[in-house]
Amino acid sequence: MVSLAVVILTHNEERHIGRAIDAVRPLAKEILIVDSGSTDRTIEIARSKGAVVLLNPWTNYSRQFQWALDNGSITADWIMRLDADEVIEDKLASEIADKLDKLPRDVVGVNLKRKHIFLGRWIRFGGRYPLILTRIWRRGSGRIEDRWMDEHIIVSGGRTITFEHPFSDQNLNDIGFFTDKHNKYATREAVDVLIKKHSLFEGDDQILQDRSSIQASLKRFIKEKIYNNIPFQFSSFGYFIFRYFFQLGLLDGREGLIYHFLQGGWYRFLVGAKVYEFDLELRALTSIEEKRKVLAKLSGLKLDLSAPKVEHVRPSTN
Question: What is the pLDDT of residues 85-103, one digit of tens each?
Fold first, then answer.
């Protein structure tokens, strides 16, 4: 066991939460679950496995996770972000146990490699492995971006390193769940695009200056500066072709075809279509306040209509 706190957000995750906790329980000093109102056995399972469970109403992933950091009374030296459907595999668990508490003080973040399992198959191609994400950081040296979608951990006060072994993202639900989830993701991503386009709120784009994960910074830059400026009917189709043929997604077999088409084609088209749909309404308006209200109504999201200015203070390393 190392001085590590694992933070997991949940809502009706009874299929996954026990598996996630079991994988980190021999490793972590603290396991913190922040639940947003599960009606299944998620909370019961988490408590039975020794996790601390806190309840907080849902706004979005970013604000829920930051609430966990601010209110979770974490005492461990290191914090890990983990989704309920993700699993820390044995080799990575051993690497964390062997290395984490021995890292020099100038290391404040650890990047991990995520591998995606879809319909039981590891999706190795199409640019999907390795996805390098900052998932472990020293307490007090990290915060999460304030965004509706594609939020990353931002660390400061030192350098980051990358561990060798991966963790897996393996959701056990069916394709209907996958498409429903990505439909909701598409709404959130469209909202982020339109917030930036119409300057509706103060943006949080610190990942573009952050170097903890160069891969994440580069992908954000390409998406916002290039991809989003191409008409969606061309960009979404082109992205799927690039991923499936040029990045060899076709080598992922039948499962890969389903995944790359849905996640790399259909989902990207859906985001573009929602941006277009919502923007038709916003373009007719002149008031920022009115645009905020209309976007909140169209998206069904709890946008902060008062839009107070947020100071993005870089966290202390003390």
Answer: 999 999 999 999 999 999 9
pTM of the model: 0.91
Strands 159-169 and 78-81, sheet pairing: unpaired
Residue 238: what pLDDT?
97
Fold entry, domain 2-169: Spore Coat Polysaccharide Biosynthesis Protein SpsA; Chain A (3.90.550)
Placement of tokens 């933070």 in the chain: 7
Domain ranges of the chain: 2-169, 175-299
